[in-house]
Amino acid sequence: MHVLKAIYGNFKKYQFLMQQLISRDFKVKYKRSTLGVLWSLLYPILMMLVMAVVFSKMFKFSVPGVNYFVYFEIGFVMFNYFSEASNNGMTSVVFNFNLLTKVYIPKYIFPLSKCLFCGINFLLTLIPLLFVIIFTGTIEHISWYYLLLPVIFFFGFLFTVGMSFILSTISVFFRDMFYIYGIILTIWNYATPVFYDISIVPDGLQTIFKLNPLFVFINNARDIILYGNCPSTLNLILMVVYGVVFLLIGSIVFKRHQDKFIYYA
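Below the sequence we write its predicted structure tokens.
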């Protein structure tokens, strides 16, 4: 808890720097782009259409009782956020060595700013998701449980920040992690029921798949949006545990090794 308190204090102290880093990321990402931030709205829609058509029409994937487009879109936007944020967070310290060697900056600000930047993009992608929900008639399942969605996204954010702290620490000492993590993400994507229903997974493996942190977050959101149900108590507990535990582990790992980063610049 002392570590988190110190991080929060520094976060307030360096709030302006955080804003500048996030602003820089937006400028770099959309530099010379005619549509700019609108791509954050168009990208998930276009990808959803392409991927949903491929999986539902060509590979005949379907989910009984729900709209497959909505099912896929929920998994896609949530996994895409984790993938983008953790990837950017992993490289953030190494790519900012030029700043670290010139002035004192709390090093954790770099992976955290990446997660916040990607988080803003994630919030923008929820707009087209909402239109898809309304257009497909899934809005009929709206309930008070929708109030739990921000909670799910918040703990998903904590989990992502924790993973970014761990990955950014490893990548400083082991640059091959940049390439290895791409392979890990691909495997993780297929091991997470983003485009398929978990019922097609052999019974012996389903328990393992259900312990996947990303499955827990995605499945909780799907329970609310697709079925109008409250997520199971077990999944809610797992959601909190994954978010808090990984943030604590990531913070401790990062803090213990951050003083050595400068020697690997």
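Residues 109-135 form the longest helix (27 residues).
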